[in-house]
C-alpha cells in the first residue's frame, strides 16, 4: 500500500487505470515492496475477462463430443448452434454462463480454490481453476484439460481429452 495525499491506497481499492509505472515515478523506493506483494501482482497483471462473446468457429466438435459419450442426436443438434458466453470477473472470482440454444451452462469459481463445475455433458465435478500469466485460465477434470485464453476481443477455449482437442473461438459482442 502507499499513500496518495491523505488517502491510503491498497491493492483492494486501486483505480482501474492504475499502472505500476505510476507508483515507480511517484515513489521509486516504495515501488519494489509494493509491486512484489502477491495481491498487487494479481491486480496489476490480471487482464479482464469481462464481457459477452459469440462463438465464431470451432474445430473437432463431433469427435470430441463422441469421446465424451454424447449421443449422436445431441451432437448433430449442437454442431451448428452459435453459443453466447458471458464472463463476469471480479478479481479472482468468475461467473461463466454459456448459452447454446435452450441449454444454459453456468459455473462460478474463484481462481486457486476448489469449485463444483458443470461439464459439457451436464456432469458436476470438483476442480481447481488456475490462472497462468495474465490472460489464461487452466483447469483439469475427468481426464479433460481446459485452457481458456483471452487476447483482445477474442476468447479461445481448448479442451483436450486424450489425443482429441476441441477448440472454440469466440469474439466479443
Automatic annotation (TrEMBL):
This is Fatty acid-binding protein, liver. Belongs to the calycin superfamily. Fatty-acid binding protein (FABP) family. The lineage of its organism: Eukaryota, Metazoa, Chordata, Craniata, Vertebrata. One of its GO terms (molecular function) is fatty acid binding. Pfam families: Lipocalin_7 (PF14651). The keyword Transport applies. GO terms for cellular component: cytoplasm. InterPro entries: Calycin, Fatty_acid-bd, ILBP. Residues 51-68 form the Cytosolic fatty-acid binding proteins domain. Binds free fatty acids and their coenzyme A derivatives, bilirubin, and some other small molecules in the cytoplasm. Involved in intracellular lipid transport. The keyword Transport applies. Forms a beta-barrel structure that accommodates hydrophobic ligands in its interior. PANTHER family: FATTY ACID BINDING PROTEIN. One of its GO terms (biological process) is fatty acid transport. It is found in: Cytoplasm. Keywords: Cytoplasm, Lipid-binding, Transport.
Amino acid at each position: 500500500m502507499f499513500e496518495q495525499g491523505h488517502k491510503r491506497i491498497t491493492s483492494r481499492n486501486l483505480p482501474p487505470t492504475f499502472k505500476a509505472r505510476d507508483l515507480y515515478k511517484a515513489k521509486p523506493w516504495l515501488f519494489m515492496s509494493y509491486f512484489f506483494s502477491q495481491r498487487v501482482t494479481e491486480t496489476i497483471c490480471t487482464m479482464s475477462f469481462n464481457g459477452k462473446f459469440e462463438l465464431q468457429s470451432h474445430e473437432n466438435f463431433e469427435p470430441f463430443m463422441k469421446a465424451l459419450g454424447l449421443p449422436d442426436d445431441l451432437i448433430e443438434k449442437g454442431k451448428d448452434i452459435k453459443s453466447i458466453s458471458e464472463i463476469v470477473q471480479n478479481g479472482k472470482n468468475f461467473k461463466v454462463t454459456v448459452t447454446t440454444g435452450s441449454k444454459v451452462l453456468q459455473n462460478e469459481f474463484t481462481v486457486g480454490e476448489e469449485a463444483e463445475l458443470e461439464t459439457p455433458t451436464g456432469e458436476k465435478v470438483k476442480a481447481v481453476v488456475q490462472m497462468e500469466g495474465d490472460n489464461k485460465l487452466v483447469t483439469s477434470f475427468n481426464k479433460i484439460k481446459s485452457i481458456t485464453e483471452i487476447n483482445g476481443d477474442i476468447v479461445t477455449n481448448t479442451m483436450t481429452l486424450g489425443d482429441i482437442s476441441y477448440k472454440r473461438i469466440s469474439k466479443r459482442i
